[in-house]
Amino acid sequence: MKKKKKLNAEDLPPPKGMEAWRIMGGLFFGLFGVYTLVALVSFLFTWAQDQSLLWHPDIFRPFVSMEHVENGGGKLGFLWSRFLVGKLFGLGAFIVPFFFLALSFFCLKLKRISLVRVFLLSVFGCIIISVVCSFIFGFTPLNDWCGTGAGGSYGYFVHRYLIDMLGVVGAGLLLFILFFVWLLCIFPVISSWLWRGMHPDSKPVPPVEPDMIVEEAEEQDLPEAVKMEIIAPVVQEVVPPLDDEPVFEVEENPNLSAEEEESDLGSLDTVYDPKLDLPDYQLPPLSLLEDYKDKIFEVPREELEKNNKRIVQTLSHYKISIEKIYARPGPTVTMYEIYPAPGVRIAQIKSLEVDIALGLAARGVRIIAPIPGTNAVGIEVANDRPGVVPMRAVLDSPQFKDAKFDLPIVIGKSISNEVMAFDLAKMPHLLVAGATGQGKSVGLNAIIASLLYRMHPSALKLVLVDPKKVELSLYSKLEKHFLAQLPDSEEPIITDTQKVVHTLRSLCIEMDARYDLLKMAQVRNLREYNDKFLSRKLNPHKGHRFLPFIVVIIDEFADLLMTAGREVEEPIARLAQLARAVGIHLVIATQRPDAKIITGLIKSNFPARIAFRVTSSVNSKIILDTTGAEQLIGRGDMLLYMGNELTRVQCALIDTPEVERIADFISRQKGYDVAHFLPEYTAEEDNGMIEVDLKKKDALFEEAAKLVVQYQQGSTSLIQRRMNLGYNRAGRIMDQLEAAGIVGPAEGSKARQVLISDFHSLDRILAAFGEK
Cα–Cα distances in Å, from 353 out to 363, 366, 481? Predict the structure, then answer.
């Protein structure tokens, strides 16, 4: 497509025809309005000195005489103001210059105005002010001002007629009412003041939603005489945090002894607090983030009116009439809500999507027909100057700060500037997809930052999988605060494919262990279990422990499937189906949204999905089960599918330096001694059992063997809970039990089969190995 050349002012052709006459007329009326205003103001103070010009019997004598006049507009200005003030409207004549100025604005197109409305209000204003001034000052010496009174000749005769017909009181009441009506027409804000005064408990009701402020645009010369209303959200003022934010310290009581302090923290009468392991931990401050004030733009009214006119014209070409239009400006996209006339089928408008996009000559045009819950059709159009949504602004919003969520996440703002915050624990898993460079990585950073700004390290653990090795590496500094990993992991961020498989299998083991704990505690989910544990109703010596949320974030899921295939898909499907109740949640991202990657099994277990811009409508249907993602404009523009509702959202911007500052702030604080270890997972070998030297059996081997036979459950987590051991030692004991023939080989995430059914048989085996 050929690029248009930008024209400078000197390159523009001179106006011709009616355009030239319009400019000349606008300049003339503007200058004449200023001249009239100068002559009228001067006439107020010099009318008596210039009266000699009126004494000549020859009407042309004043123009040829050499007499000096005091009026600032000269002789012509004196006669012109004398005509307006004395012969016509008195003080009401001061409306006339403003009418000429409005006429100039109309001709020069400096402001859209209704010329008929201005003319009628100007005439009515001249008349009512003239009569009111004559009525008020008719009983004072000012009535002799200028020889005709303050209301001029017109006001004098009309007010005398009204007094004769209605009396002084009746004429005064009528004039007061008419003058007040004129003020209401000139200043509409007076109407709103009166309404609020008479209805103090009521709120202005806008056309669409109660939390919107409606500004009616001026009339436009459009087909069907359609008017557009701009619906802008109520903007909440965000108070920036101080540069030096206060540091909150835990005050220690020096009068308490060690025994008293331990008793206070560990008493059964007190609620257990897992935060006491890191009592001085502080959440990151907002000052670590940028405000991006230079990248936040408001949509100009001219742009809204231009798009409004083009939409109406395009639809009028196809005989589609419209009753009204509302514009909802957003950060990057504006929604035009169209209410078609009765009898117009919505399918007609939907079929014109390509034609409307062509007529608007804009990117990102998407039609929603109808808007859910309304009888309107939505047309989304990208703004000429797209702005950004700072992460700092959404994190400081009440929707996020005051939300009572278990796993609060704020992702950005909708096209109506509404902050989009949700609870990952209720979703319960999230699928993120989009083409390369469309904002997927920024979206993952926004999700992680949301959790870091609200969660304590004791309540949240992150499992970060990054096959590309560069996207999530910035969070490696959080190893001893938020990250969870296998005991034998060398890197906090999982990048090796085989390690990913082992980690997912380990998470399945952790899931099963948590379900065992829930069963023992007789509760249904993680929240109920932790509530019982915090209130000291569960005994830690019986294997019970506080269970933090675990959020698994996997970037480049397509790469994992290509290298590991079913080894990855199987545990992910199992976690997606069962892990919600025990507080394990998945966030999976991919840049290849095709049917081989996002299978039916994955989609059925990920009800919440985010789609950034994709290359085709086929990819959009794979992610969202509908089209639309291919029409996004990129750079964080996305569609959020949640609860069978599709919402267009601009993703919050958080850049790499901001992520580094957050990670540095957290890593400089005291953390745990080691990272949070997941259950140990040993890959099943094809050739048989792992070689174990039974001459170096663990000291607790016999006790563990009796425990397994008693419960008939070959589970490493059972040994760990019942015997209060670490995962590594419990796993070694399980391998020794397998070598001794007490339990069978590992079966993935399932418990091993117990080969001994009674203690008598167990005693014979233990005796054979020299235990008795």
Answer: 12, 7, 50
